[in-house]
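Thread: Newbie trying to understand structure tokens

Hi all, I'm a second-year student working on a class project, and my supervisor (Dr. K.) asked me to get a predicted structure for one chain before our next meeting. I've only ever worked with sequences, so writing a 3D structure as a token string is new to me. If someone could post the tokens and maybe explain what I'm looking at, I'd be very grateful. Here's the chain:
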Amino acid sequence: MRRGSVRLRLTLLFGGLFLAAGAALLGITYGLVSHATNGIIVAGQAGGAGLTAPSALPDAQQAGVQAAKYASQARAAEDNALLLYSGIALGIMAVVSVALGWFTAGHALRPLRRITAAARRISATNLHERLALEGPDDDLRELADTIDGLFARLDMSFYAQRQFVANASHELRTPLARSRTLLEVALRNPEVSAESLRTACERVLAAGAEQERLIEALLMLAARGLGMEVTLAPALMAGDFALSERAVANLIDNALRHNVADGTVWVTVDTREDQAVLRVANTGPVIPPGQVGSLLLPFGRGGAAGRAPRTRAPRPCQGSDDGLGLGMSIVQAIAIAHGAAFSIAARPDGGLAAELSFPPVPLSWRDDDTQPRGHDRDQRLALKA
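---
Reply by user tm_fold:
Sure, no problem. This is what the structure looks like when written as tokens:
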């Protein structure tokens, strides 16, 4: 047994409480019996003195004294015997109480040992396992359910982290592969011209700018200690893929950029009344309600406290609206083009909450594998968790 065992402490506590209660009960019983016996002996002595004849007074007085002495000795012997036997019984019951306390404490702490063993066994590689403690709905059951909830949140967090790393790796690799392909095609073309080389270089620079912007976003996410909580549910929407992707990117980029150190970004995708709904919220400085509407205007930005420090000015080749106050206005324009509802609201604790709700997908499109084609027609987009 290890030092400081809870089972040992509980056993000693149970034994000590029983010993104290038994000693108190023994003292009360001893006092009551002694008082009752003393009353009986005094009453007997008084009765014997009242019945003594006058002619035999000296002998009667001597007999009374002898009787009182014998009664006192008998009462003392009875009290001693009562005290001895009660002490022996108390000692036996103390040993029994310690044994019962050890057994009871072990039985009560058995679920706790299961919880400890399972918590030691579960690691980052098997966070899908659960304690699944059975039994009465008591404090230990509540503790096990709480730990299961913690494991579920950790499992979701690790899964989101793995997905984030995979997506970031893919996004970083795509511009590199595009640049390499453009350069290889340009070099292998025997009839290459200066104009085609210039076009290829411009496209390579554009791919590099996209990669640079992604790296800067990742660095911002790591340097400022921002956390992301993403909840995705299957949602079907109708719209242009590129424009919809741009709207989502602008909302998340705005939530990351206009945040505070060690802040949080919440991203939720679900379905409400057959409508695909995207919600993006973030922590940040408190925005006065009167300034919320101005954020939807072109070149409208929040206060300086909400902006992340800019390390350098964006280059013209990036074609980015970074920090120019165009992100929300572009999202609003995309929403209007899709017939979607877009709204923003200031959070009471600081930051902004944005919601983009797309119209329901026509029933004829949901079970049809064919898609409309062309730039002037909508394309279906499925966002799945």
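A couple of things are worth pointing out once you decode it. Confidence is low (pLDDT under 50) at residues 48-53, 303-322, 369-385. Helices lie at 6-50, 57-121, 139-188, 194-223, 241-257, 289-292, 327-338, 363-366. Feel free to ask follow-ups in this thread.
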